[in-house]
Amino acid sequence: MARSTGGDPHIERAYSLTGPDDARALYDEWAATYDADLTGDAQGYVAPSVTADAVVAAAGTAGEMLDAGCGTGLVGVELARRGVGTIDGLDVSPGMLERARATGVYRELREADLTAALELPDDSYDVVVCVGTLTHSHVGPSALSEFVRVIRHGGYLVATVLDDAWESGGYRAEVDRICAGDVVEAVSIEVAPYRSGQDVECRLLVLRVR
Q1: Second-level CATH architecture of 9-209
Q2: Would you give the end-to-end CA distance of the chain in angstroms?
Q3: pLDDT tens digits, residue range 98-119?
Q4: pTM of the predicted model over 0.90
Q5: A GO term (biological process) for this protein (predicted)?
Q6: How far apart are CA 110 and CA 60, in angstroms?
Q7: Distance CA 79, CA 105 (A)
């Protein structure tokens, strides 16, 4: 399948990663120019803003939030702009975490591989937000259950899934599975803009943990 990258070599490489070590190497290399590369008109990376709006609409601004796959902190900055006060972040790349730390919006930042079990207790956060990592060659659908595990009762998972990976990557099947029981309910699953400069869309998930 042809994927719309706008010819950006970092995005092209991102869609063919071979594992966490490869991801760490790419994002460490990319950290210095990541924001400029993605937020300009050519890519129009609006997913952080769109997702922050969804978080606040569902959960408000109080409580403790985890930005899983926080990168340089684009999502954390958007959440802070909307009045969210307590945000922690996890990312596989130390270089990206350094940029996120410089934003000043995070309470705590830690290196973590989201393809593995999180080193966090059950019921740690009121909201887990995940933008840009549930996509080709990154973090697979099994992470959704792990995110749910660390969310408190009545809390929310708000996440983007790249639209052309929604079915083929197994994310839809996993969302259906975890929502089939009595633990998680789907508040909304909508098509939303992701990289508007390339007309790339995502599925924006708002799931509530009962």
Answers
A1: 3-Layer(aba) Sandwich (3.40)
A2: 37
A3: 999 999 999 999 999 999 999 9
A4: yes
A5: methylation
A6: 24
A7: 9
